Structures are given as structure tokens and as C-alpha cells.
Amino acid sequence: MPEWFVPASTESRGPLARRPEAVGSRAAIGSAKCAPRPRRTIAPNMRHLLGLQLLPATDLRELLSRTQRAKAGPAASDPLASRPLAGRLVANLFFEDSTRTRNSFTAAAYALGAQVIDLLGSSSSVNKGETLIDTARNVEAMGVAAMCVRAKQSGSAAMIAKGSGCPVINAGDGKHEHPTQGLLDLFTIAESFDRLGSFDLSGLRVGIVGDVASSRVARSAIAGLLTLGATVTVVGPPGLVPGGLASAASHDLDEVLPTLDAVMMLRIQFERHSDAPPPQGAAVSRGSSIASVREFRSFYALTAEREARMKPHAIIMHPGPINRGIELDADVADGPRSVILRQVSNGVFARTAALAWCCEAH
Ligand code: MLT
Fold first, then answer.
1. What is the pLDDT of residues 237-252, one digit of tens each?
2. Which of 114, 176, 221, 311 has its CA 20 to 30 A from that of 268?
3. Mind listing the pLDDT tens digit for each residue in 183-215?
4. Between 3.40.390.10, 3.40.50.1370, 3.30.420.40, 3.40.190.290, what CATH number should domain 180-344 receive?
5. Hey, which of 178, 318, 326 would you mutate to test ligand 1's pocket, going by the most ligand atoms within 8 Å of its Cβ?
6. Residue 260 — φ and ψ, nearest 5°?
7. May I ask the CATH architecture of the domain 3-176+345-360?
8. How many Å lie between the centroid of ligand 1 and the Cα of residue 153?
9. In this predicted model, what pLDDT tens digit does every residue of 73-115 receive, in sequence order?
10. Residue 172 CB less than 6 A away from ligand 1
11. Domain range annotation of the chain
């Protein structure tokens, strides 16, 4: 992908400074530069979902409440029940691999009555030099109701939204944000602690553990958790836990673990580091943020022994894909505290809510 796609100014300002866009309605139009193209008129009610960092609390609670209704099976009077996208097309534009996110967007679109166009980066004209924006505009020209966009570059969903005549949902952009993952994470925590309805998470302490620096999941979760009143601690080795994440940071999982109500484990996202992944257990090469996978595991993996020191009611989360035996042991991932597959199920409802919310204003 051409380096210029994400403006240098966007990439160089550090993790939470990467806010190429505001979230929701016209505020989603970012200031990022791209190749010159004719100006387009943006529909006044256009509603994108590009991140949780700037999403107003009222919109966040509305999306969570819709997630709850989608899961409960909407009442006959609920707009969600009337298959509001019947006869419409929703496009998945995935320029990066995905299992859960893409398929749950598809399931959500079906639940709303839509049909789905799946464009995978590996088989698209991007490989012939077409830009993401041109690709998106061509798909949009087919008359889609919304586009769900995943790409490797931070800010890419906002870039596409800037020139789009239909709602864009960020399905994960580089290290920036993954707002529908954030929604499903928040919903799962609220559900686990009986906070549905109010979505008030005050009094709960959530730990996000591992490769926080590379994680768009962490950025969206932190934003949403703080909005809903939870306390957040990010935990990991210094190279993987940046400062300035608007939450407490620790490098000592053993100290923090017994204080947590929810533990969100993260994979080491080597593909978002400067180096290629090392073989499992091997020392990592120069440029990586950790000395060795083995060392990372000894300090930060959630093993059965560590799990035994958690609060009795505490839950274990992971956005997937799990690297079993690195950040999370198999017994723990599949054990009674794990809500990992419930997160996946809730993802369909969160994405149903997000698609309907974005499209109703269009
Ligand atoms: C993501 O898309 O960021 C994933 O859900 C988390 C990961 O890749 O580890």
C-alpha cells in the first residue's frame, strides 16, 4: 500500500493523538490530505462510526441499548424488527485479514435484511495500483447502503468516509480504533456485571494486558470504558505499554491482577511492529518492542496459576485471534471465567446496532 495513504502528520503524533476524524455525523470528515479529487457534497445527516474516542456518551449508550435490544430480539414496534435494510446492499471492504469481524458484519447485515458484497483486499484491484479511496468509491457507486472498512493504515476509514456518500463503519484501521469491537467489549462487561440498561460501569476495574501499543482494540475499549465510568489499567512491558493512554499503566501483572474485575488479554501484534513475527519462543529481532516471546510469557501470560489469584467473579476477555500458549493458556481461554465466545456472539448484535444506527440517518 502506498505510504502516502495515511498522511505523515496523522502517523507521527503518537497513539491517542491519532484522531484524524471525529466520530458521528458530519464531524467524521477528517482533515487528512489525499490525492486531489473533485469535492463531493456530503449528505447533511451522514453518520459514520469511525471510533469511540470522540463519540458522545449519549450515542455510546444508544448503541449499547440497541445492542441489548438486538440480542433480546427486538419488540415488534422496534425499528430493528422491521428489517430496515431489506432490499439494500452492505459492502465489506476488508484490506486486512479477519475472521470474526467480517463474518459478524455479514451476519448483522443479514439480520437487518440486507445482502452483502464482500471485497477482500487480496483479490481486489488495489493489487493493480488502485487506491483504497477509488476502490471504495467504485463499490459505493454500486448503490450500497453502508461500507464496513478494515485496513492496515491508521486513519483509512476516515479517509474513505471523507469522500463517501454513504455511511462508513470502521472495522479496524491499523493501530487506531476498532469501534464495534469496543461496543461488543463494553456490552459483554455490562452483561457480565448486571449493568445492562444503565451501562454504568463505575466501580469496575478493567485491565488491558499485553501489546497495548499496537492495539486498536485497546484504544476503543479505553475510550468507551472511561466514558461509562470504569477504571482502566493497562499492563505490559514498557515497550508495549505507551504513556498517554488516559489510564493507569503498570508493568507488573502479578500485582494488578487480584484487583481486576475484567481482564482483557491482547495478542502480540507482530504484524503491526516494524519487524516480522519471530518463531514461537525465539528471541525477537532488533526493532521489536520485546526481548523475547518466552520472557513476555513469563511476566504477562494469563496462566492457570495466575488465574487462581483473580477475584472470584472476575472475567477473562480476548478480542481474538488468541495465540494459545503465549498470552493465554488454553485451559484459561476455555475455562469458566472466559467470556471470549460470548464476545464473539455479542459482536453480531453490536454490529447490527451499529449498521442500523448509521443507516437510519442516511
Ligand atoms: C484486531 O482486529 O485488532 C483484532 O481483533 C485483535 C488482534 O488482531 O489481535
1. 988 997 777 679 999 9
2. 311
3. 999 999 999 999 999 999 999 999 999 999 999
4. 3.40.50.1370
5. 178
6. -95, 145
7. 3-Layer(aba) Sandwich (3.40)
8. 14
9. 978 888 778 899 999 999 999 999 999 999 999 999 999 999 9
10. yes
11. 3-176+345-360, 180-344
